[in-house]
Design goal:
With 306 residues, the chain is α+β, with helices and mostly antiparallel strands. The protein has twelve helices and seven strands. The protein has a four-stranded antiparallel beta sheet. It has a three-stranded antiparallel beta sheet with strand order 1-3-2. Helix 2 crosses helix 4 and helix 6 crosses helix 8. It is globular.
């Protein structure tokens, strides 16, 4: 009988070598922020450098991009536009560009905003800029600012949960914040009635020059800001605003975008202007208007000053 040859044992194959890891989220899923790139060199050495990278030239390109862009440029997008430089090289580019615009003498600054970076005027010159455009700073009532603070720190949460914290109806405040695009619908909570969940928008981060939600001030600073903005001082001995814990609930619609929405990684796919949708596709304007305007029965609060 003819002997059947034995098959050769399988050999281990080595995975193909990869170049620079994909730009964008880290291993934890958190988008890379400008501040992280500048202050944390760990891991940069594991990324192969872009050969023959011209750092001054890259800084010149980034300067032009920041000048013409109307929105913050996310870090991963900048890496692609600059030839996919590794993190260490991007740090060099940003350091070179920021050194060119020092805060103590330059009228233009390179600021981290909404998980990207953008040219911004020096805050010390804001009064002169306003005179040029005859623009008055937006005014908010104390009720609207308190509602916005609650949403920023406890998001995502429902209107009923906001009112549970404040103790009064927030319909007027919520409508004002939605109209000004500072607050958006993030989905629906998987509880009876399927109430809408609200959170802060990309415009919120741009308006208040916040790079990420981790930069939000303390509640004491919020109280001081409310007093300065509304002319209503905090009563002596009054405790600072307390935000009780909200029971956890599953998000039925929009749950997949929650982490990305909180991180505000960048503009929506497809290059749409304005950054992101305010309303999930299965929610109609009529439903949202009804949910926001419907009184909870705890009494309406005037919104004079918005």
């Amino acid at each position: 009988m003819e002997e059947t040859p034995k098959p050769n044992p399988p050999t281990a194959t080595e995975p193909p070598a990869t170049a620079d890891p994909p730009a964008g989220p880290t291993a934890s899923g958190e988008p890379i922020s400008v501040d992280e790139l500048l202050r944390s060199p760990s891991g940069a050495e594991s990324e192969p450098p872009e050969p023959d990278a011209d750092i001054p030239r890259a800084a010149s390109i980034l300067e032009s991009l920041l000048l013409v862009s109307t929105e913050p440029i996310p870090v991963d997008k900048a890496r692609q536009l600059l030839g996919r430089l590794n993190r260490a090289q991007v740090r060099e580019v940003l350091a070179l560009l920021r050194a060119k615009y020092p805060a103590d003498s330059s009228g233009i600054l390179v600021e981290e905003v909404a998980r990207g970076f953008q040219f911004r005027t020096n805050p010390a010159n804001q009064e002169h800029v306003r005179r040029l455009f005859d623009v008055k700073p937006p005014r908010f009532s104390r009720a609207a600012l308190e509602t916005l603070a609650i949403i920023a720190y406890k998001q995502p949460l429902t209107r009923q949960e906001i009112e549970q914290i404040r103790g009064v109806d927030c319909a007027g405040s919520l409508k004002t914040l939605m109209d000004r695009r500072l607050v958006k619908v993030m989905g629906k909570k998987d509880v009876p009635g399927k109430p809408f969940l609200f959170g802060t928008s990309r415009e919120f981060m741009e308006t208040f020059s916040i790079g990420s939600l981790s930069e939000l001030p303390s509640m004491r600073e919020i109280e001081d800001f409310l007093a300065a903005s509304t002319g209503t001082p905090v009563e002596e001995g009054r405790p600072t605003m307390h935000l009780p814990a909200i029971p956890d609930g599953d998000i039925e619609q929009g749950g997949d975008e929650l982490a990305a929405s909180l991180a505000e990684a960048g503009p929506a796919a497809g290059g749409a202007s304005g950054g992101e949708e305010r309303i999930p596709p299965d929610v109609t304007e009529a439903e949202l208007s009804d949910a926001v305007s419907k009184s909870s029965g705890e009494g309406n609060e005037p919104e004079n000053g918005d």
